[in-house]
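Ticket #4471: structure output looks truncated?

Reporter: J.K.
Steps to reproduce: submitted the chain below (229 residues) through the standard prediction queue, then opened the result file.
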Amino acid sequence: METLDRQGVADNTLVIFTSDNGGMLNMGGQDAWSRGHRLNGDLLGFKFDAWEGGHRVPFIARWPGKIEAGTRSDQLICNVDMLATFASVANTELTAAEGPDSFNVLPTMVGDPTEPIRDHAVLAARQPSHLSIRQGPWMLIGAQGGGGFTAVKRGAHTFGGPSAMQFTGQVNSDVSAGKIRPDAPKAQLYNLDTDPYQSKNVIRENPEVADQLKQRLEKIRRVPTRPGL
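Returned output as attached by the reporter:
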């Protein structure tokens, strides 16, 4: 911001602060955690996980005269949407082959649309088995655990998963004493409106929701370049 001020363009520049993923519980992350720093706030999991701590990130935008200061939005967006958004800012048309999964989210940055711009997002964890889908308040993860790193001992670069919960103190209904419970469901469903920290897997209570999301994810797998599915 100081550089933009010096150049005299701060009031005519769209500035975005964000991240491509959540913080990682590597050795540096473990040291930071021990000192009281919560890398991803109270979100469950870390970088590479399908859990919220792996991919829900800050997104702060500043554009004087365009974005009203102090406003907030609960629209679902993804960083891949920046391609279509920047194209809109530059009055440029994208071809059908350019960013087919990118949505223009400029309307939610400069206004307050009543309808969702993007009604779903597909999240890819480190493990292919954990390809997941978010739609509305619901998040479906098609396997057990976070799908990221799973080293079991503190000090390992790839420390993570259920084993790390004994170190972090995070809570999930499928996990006990650092291991997946024997009776845990084979997949996970969370209502992020009521449980943003994913403390309780509610897939057994909502089988219809889980089945609908599973079917939609399978359609996307078959035709991945059609975001309207």
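Triage note (M.O.): checked the attachment and the full token line is present. Residues 2-222 form a domain with the Alkaline Phosphatase, subunit A fold (CATH 3.40.720.10).
Status: closed, working as intended.
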